[in-house]
Amino acid sequence: MMKKKLDLIDIKKFKKSKKKLVMITAYDYVSGYIVNESSADIILVGDSYGMTTLGYDQTSLVSMEDMDRATRSINNVKLKTFLVADLPYKTYETNEQALKNSKILINSGADAIKLEGGKDKREIIEHLTNNNIKVMSHIGIIPQSIKFKKDYKILGKNNQEYNHLFEDAKEVQNAGAFAVVLELIEKKLAKDITLSLNIPTIGIGSGSYTDGQVQVYNDLIGYSPHPLPKHAKPFSNLFESASEAISKYISSIKS
């Protein structure tokens, strides 16, 4: 059966569907090609690009130029998959800046943009959606603001965090976001948020009750020199396979 690119109506149907929405990151033509040929529902050009591909130790170092190049390379694939691109750190501080940079990524092939933040980004989300930019929100742990690995922890275990994140979820929905990523949110809270919203929730490290799940391409295929995050579940070990292939090639030449 020919794969059809989803639209927002299709994506929102996952809210009442028994099927899970699946989003996978991609960063270049090859990863984009592989995910596009799969049955994944959404490709995310994540700013995790900085850590998986560019060798940065923080996503906050990723630039608009980095994200634009990655988005363009994936758009060179004949896309049959809805494409979302991350707005990098400090590129959506004002309505005007957010709109300008969103248009760059849309013009490079993205169907929608993703930005981090809850009620503090309500005005930005409203401005973008009022200007026909489709927005996916991201709450919980927001990696662009994380400087140390120790700060990656489950949120929502106390009443203050619970209430804050619950309010964030409501605010981004009311501002016009079509979906929201819940990262490292306590699983009961993730469930409560999912039940309370009319838009799909996409979890990462937030339990299984969300409407969908997202994972990093490199984590899924085991393609990294570094230890994988605790919530990642690799289904292969391509880093080891690549190392073995290189060693075999070198041996074949030297022998």
Give an overview of the whole structure.
The protein is α/β, with parallel strands linked by helices and 255 residues long. It has helices at residues 8-13, 29-37, 49-52, 64-75, 95-107, 122-130, 159-175, 187-196, 217-221, 238-254; strands at 21-25, 42-45, 82-86, 112-116, 135-140, 179-183, 201-204, 212-215. An 8-stranded parallel barrel has the order 1-2-3-4-5-6-7-8, surrounded by 6 helices. Helix 2 packs across helix 4 and helix 6 (122-130) packs parallel to helix 7. The longest helix is centred in the middle third of the chain and has 17 residues, at 159-175. The termini are far apart.
Q: What is this structure's SSE topology?
A:
Layout: H1 8-13, E1 21-25, H2 29-37, E2 42-45, H3 49-52, H4 64-75, E3 82-86, H5 95-107, E4 112-116, H6 122-130, E5 135-140, H7 159-175, E6 179-183, H8 187-196, E7 201-204, E8 212-215, H9 217-221, H10 238-254
Parallel strand pairs: 1-2, 1-8, 2-3, 3-4, 4-5, 5-6, 6-7, 7-8
Instruction: Point out poorly predicted stretches.
Output: none
How does the helix and strand content classify structurally?
alpha/beta
For this entry, what is the oligomeric state of its chains? single chain
SS element count, helices:
10
In what range is the share of β-strand residues?
5-15%
Major β-sheet profile: 8 strands, parallel, barrel
Spatial order of strands in the largest sheet: 1-2-3-4-5-6-7-8
The tally of strands reads: 8
**Through-space gap between termini:** 48 Å
Binned, the helix content reads 40-55%
- Overall mean pLDDT stands at 95
- From N to C, what is the helix and strand string? HEHEHHEHEHEHEHEEHH
Using only C-alpha atoms, the radius of gyration works out to 18 Å
C-alpha geometry: globular
